[in-house]
Amino acid sequence: MSVLKIYSEKDISSFLRKRKGETKFGEKINFVKTLEDLKNHSAKYVLFGIPEDIGVRANYGIPGTSKAWEAALGSLLNIQHNHLTNAENVILLGEIDCETQMKQADNISKQEPHAVEKLGELVTQIDHKVSEVVKKVIEAGKFPIIIGGGHNNSFGNLKGTSEALKKPINCINFDAHTDFRALEHRHSGNGFSYAFEGEFLDKYFIFGLHRNYTSEAVFNSIEKNSERVKFNLFEDISVKQKQSFSEAMQEAENFCCNENFGIELDMDAIEMMGSSAITPSGFTLTEARKFIHYFSKNKNARYLHICEGSPTAAIFPNQVGKAIGYLVSDIVAH
Ligand SMILES: N=CN[C@@H](CCC(=O)O)C(=O)O
């Protein structure tokens, strides 16, 4: 089973729009030939994509997240290389090989019996690949920046990081949804509940949860695990203004950032952002950027996952890749 397609300069040449007198980010980014080479490289950040939308389909959602990675590359590789953007500190690893699973998913008709369970089995196969790659990147002492894909991939990120560090890790999730749904077949709505059950996830904070899209059953499950699972509501931060954005970030930081933690950012929390569950009411992209900037500076941060972006769902499709470019540069730039 092919796990990872490792990129070389040749693989990205069609994305690069070179211009005389300027140097683009993609002209200064680094490559490796094998995962083993990561250990000997001085760059801190390891960027890779997960071009799949099987988890979203298995969660009764609209396909399209498989296109976010190429959109991200198209934007990120063409931002300027200058003394601030710091491309030298990034290794462009490549992409999780989702080709076989994506082809098999296309052959599963929505109407056939057990369609979502069959999609869930494919999600499990991708989980293995993601966790294996994340584990190796963390073991090499690097900081993975992962571009999804659906939020199902939170499971592989948490499992891989936890296995590399040999203990469960915490997580902060910027999201309209908990993705703490029932432990049925695997899909984009239960990555965190599966990681919690598997003891890869210790403390979990959902930042800016939308009350309208959280079932009473999920609220009850959070209540039952209140020592380890906590949230604040988008409505309390941005509508009722009970707490400021900064206070909300501090609340999350106090809960889960004193130990190793992962940063998850679901693009469906950003208002009108092209995503599988696009929302007319949510945080601004600038607030998402503040969130990434704030949490990535914490010494216990171990990875960043930006997911659920879907260019085809967007009113302005080319803005999805550009938004991801901003979010990635917020962690990498000086
Ligand atoms: N990762 C997204 N999970 C959401 C999807 C919501 C939607 O498609 O409307 C969830 O399961 O609630």
From TrEMBL:
<dbReference type="GO" id="GO:0006547">
    <property type="term" value="P:L-histidine metabolic process"/>
</dbReference>
<dbReference type="InterPro" id="IPR006035">
    <property type="entry name" value="Ureohydrolase"/>
</dbReference>
<keyword id="KW-0479">Metal-binding</keyword>
<comment type="similarity">
    <text>Belongs to the arginase family.</text>
</comment>
<protein>
    <submittedName>
        <fullName>Formimidoylglutamase</fullName>
    </submittedName>
</protein>
<keyword id="KW-0464">Manganese</keyword>
<dbReference type="GO" id="GO:0008783">
    <property type="term" value="F:agmatinase activity"/>
</dbReference>
<dbReference type="InterPro" id="IPR023696">
    <property type="entry name" value="Ureohydrolase_dom_sf"/>
</dbReference>
<keyword id="KW-0369">Histidine metabolism</keyword>
<dbReference type="Pfam" id="PF00491">
    <property type="entry name" value="Arginase"/>
</dbReference>
<dbReference type="GO" id="GO:0033389">
    <property type="term" value="P:putrescine biosynthetic process from arginine, via agmatine"/>
</dbReference>
<dbReference type="GO" id="GO:0046872">
    <property type="term" value="F:metal ion binding"/>
</dbReference>
<keyword id="KW-0378">Hydrolase</keyword>
